[in-house]
Design goal:
The protein is α/β, with parallel strands linked by helices. Helices cover 31% and strands 17% of the residues. The protein is built from eleven helices and 15 strands. α3 packs across α9.
């Protein structure tokens, strides 16, 4: 019976609710009642979101990476994505086409169209949170567009575009829980995060610097951050820490959970690519600039994220695309 219940919960998780629940938590108010921290530090650079290359523009440096993509026999861009994050990258069982959809998926189609002239000339690969960097380094994908935070540690392993979204870490817990956020209320609680995520890095740092009680149990990690929600539903953990944007989407999937407290970090999502693929990075940054300027970014936000992130007439801070600054 327990196995059946677990399967039922997992299946239910994949079915988006048509009426997202209302919540009192204001995702636009970052860090209310908690101390905001910067990126959890094994990091030795400042403003990692500002370390990308300027957009392409006829510099004459050549485009070997982009040319190799165009020269493929099947002429497709290979992109690592999420397939189970509601409104970011997921399969909607109510969509008869069976195609992936969401905010990140829209961006992939735009990048693909700019590179290959056909927005659908893309091969999607489902990549777990824990394998995003490895998949890029091994050449399994040309890029990863998967709610991936730009930070100094990752810049040593992959190249990033300019940021295309800004959010922060937040706590997700049952509505009836006494947990109030990233604070002392997590004493003695089991907290889940994704392996290789900035959420885990921040939890580990919080334990070291005293932002979290020593008794907070952060040992539960999973390959995909959505697996934490399943564990929360099964009562195996007391809380989840993940990006606020993802947490808002998860709260929309399950009316029994809600965001607790405010954002306690600054997180900038970027498109990750192999180090040395400078021409591809510049091309993606050109696409991002145009995508924002022509209203494509805003239209995608309104379609996918407005229902879960904005509170009535009050926009989330994430409703405005981050300004690009290049090194």
């Amino acid at each position: 019976m327990a196995t059946v219940c677990a399967l039922a919960l997992t299946v239910a998780l994949l079915l988006p609710l048509t009426q997202p629940p209302t919540r009192d938590t204001d995702t636009a108010t970052a860090g209310q009642g908690v101390t905001r921290v910067t990126q959890a530090k094994a990091e030795d650079c400042e403003n990692p979101q500002d370390q990308s290359l300027s957009p392409s523009g006829g510099s004459g440096d050549g485009t070997p990476t982009v040319d190799a993509i165009k020269a493929r026999e099947d002429r497709r861009l290979i992109v690592g994505v999420d397939t189970n994050s509601y409104r970011w990258g997921y399969l909607d069982p109510n969509n008869p086409s069976g195609e992936l959809e969401g905010f990140d998926i829209d961006l992939v189609h735009r990048i693909t169209g700019d590179i290959l002239g056909d927005r659908d000339a893309v091969q999607f690969k489902a990549i777990p949170t824990s394998r995003r960097v490895e998949a890029i380094q091994k050449g399994e994908v040309d890029m990863v567009v998967r709610t991936m935070t730009i930070n100094c540690s990752r810049l040593k392993d992959v190249a990033f575009s300019a940021p295309y979204f800004v959010t922060g870490q937040q706590v997700l817990a049952p509505k009836m829980s006494a947990i109030t956020g990233y604070d002392k209320s997590l004493a003695g609680k089991k907290v889940c995060s994704a392996k290789g995520s900035t959420a885990y890095d921040n939890l580990e740092e919080g334990r070291k610097n005293g932002d979290l009680p020593d008794s907070t149990d952060i040992r539960t990690t999973v390959p995909n951050q959505l697996d934490c929600l399943v564990k929360l539903q099964l009562g195996e953990v007391d809380a989840v820490v993940t990006d606020g944007a993802l947490a808002a989407s998860q709260a929309a999937q399950d009316p029994a959970v809600e965001l607790k407290g405010g954002l306690f970090t600054d997180e900038y999502y970027g498109v990750a690519m192999k180090r040395g693929s400078d021409d591809l990075v510049r091309q993606v940054n050109r696409t991002l600039e145009n995508y924002i300027e022509d209203g494509g970014w805003k239209a995608s936000y309104e379609k996918w994220l407005h229902p879960t992130m904005d509170q009535g007439d009050k926009e989330s801070a994430s409703a405005t695309p981050p300004e690009a600054r290049y090194k």
